[in-house]
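Re: duplicated header lines in exported C-alpha cells

Our pipeline writes sequence and C-alpha cells for each protein into one text file. With two proteins the header for the second block appears twice in some exports. Here is an export where it did not happen, for reference. First protein block:
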Amino acid sequence: MEKAIIGKKIGMTQVFDDKGRVVPVTVVEAGPCVVAQKKTVENDGYAAVQIGFGDLKPKRVNKPLAGHFAKSDVAPKRTLREFRFDNCDAYNVGDIIKADAFAQGDRVDVIGTSKGKGYAGGIKRWHLHRLKETHGTGPVARHAGSNGSTSTPSRVFKGKKLPGHKGAVRVTVQNLQVVKVDAENNLIAVKGAIPGPNGGTVMIRDSVKA
C-alpha cells in the first residue's frame, strides 16, 4: 500500500546504528494527518487523496475552506496536500495517518521548500567562474559576463543562468532511508539532510526510485 504523510521539520541530529557508526539524521514531526478528501476519475478526472496536517482555529478559516472541511466532517487543518496513489480506494475520508505508517528501513522521498537566499549574483546562484582579473576586464570580475548575442538570435534564451532570486523553490530529495520511527511522539528520523528551514512543512512519501 502506497503511503505519504505531511510533517514539520524539527532539525538535524545524529544517532548510532547497530555497529556503533554515527548516522546523521533529520527529525520530522510527522502527522497525525487526516484524509480530508478523495478525488475520483469520475468526478475530478484523476484519482488522488487529499491529506490535512496541523490544527487551525475555526476563526482562521475562510468560508470556502470552512465549507470544504464541513462537507468532509473534518476539523480545519493548516496544510492541505494531494497525493496520487495507485490504490486510492484503500483510503477513506476521515482516516488518520500517523508516523507508524512508515517503518525503519523504508525508502522515502522528502519534498519541501528550500531556504530563500534573496537576490544573488551568478557566482553564488549558479557557481559561475569569475572573469579574468587582468588588463581589460575592468572592475567586474564577479559579473556574469557578456550575454553574447549578435544579429542571430538577437535575444537571450530562456533559462540562461543569470543573477536573480535564489532558493525558496520546491525541492525533492529522493531515496532517503528511514532510520527510526517514534510512533508515540509522531517522529520520523530520516538519514541525511532535507530541504527547508527548521519548522518548515515537508511531505514524506514512498520513494519512486527505491
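Second protein block, exported in the same file:
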Amino acid sequence: MAETLRLYGLVTDSIVDGPGFRTAIFTQGCPHGCPGCHNPKSHPMDGGTVWPLDEIEKRFGDNPLLTGITLTGGDPFVQAGGCAELARRAHARGLTVWTYTGYLYERLLEMAAGDPDVAALLAETDVLVDGPFLLAERSLELAFCGSRNQRVIDLARTRALGALTLYSAEAWL
C-alpha cells in the first residue's frame, strides 16, 4: 500500500470541484496531455512534491465543515493505490469522494480487471468525472466539468442500479 502521493497541489477550501465545501487534491502525473488543460504543470510524472498520506489526511480531517474530497490532477489513476487509500480514509470520516480523470469510465473498468489499485479507486469513488478535456468542446456553462464530452457519473448509484447513472444534484440532497 502506498504511504505517499506525489502532488501538484492541494486546496483545502474548494467550492468548484464538486458540491459543497471540499478539499481538492491535485495529483502529479498525467498521460493525457490535453491541449488547453488548466493544470499543464501537473503532467510530468516526476514533478510536484511527495506528501505522506497522513499529512494529506490531516489537511481534510481537521475541518468539520467539509463535505468531501476531490481527487484531480494530473490524473489520480496514475497513482491509483495511494488515491484509493486516501479515499478510503475520507469515507471513514463520512466524506464523499469525487475523482476527475481523462480516462473514460469504460476504459477504467478494463484497466481495473488487471490492476487492483484501479479497481480499489473506482470502488472508493462516489462520483467520477471522466473523459479528456477537449478545447473544442469547452464550456463555462457546465457544472463540475470543462468540456461537453465529459461525463459526471454517479458511481454510487451506478453500482446500486447496475447501469451507468449520471450525477444529479437532487439525488444527493
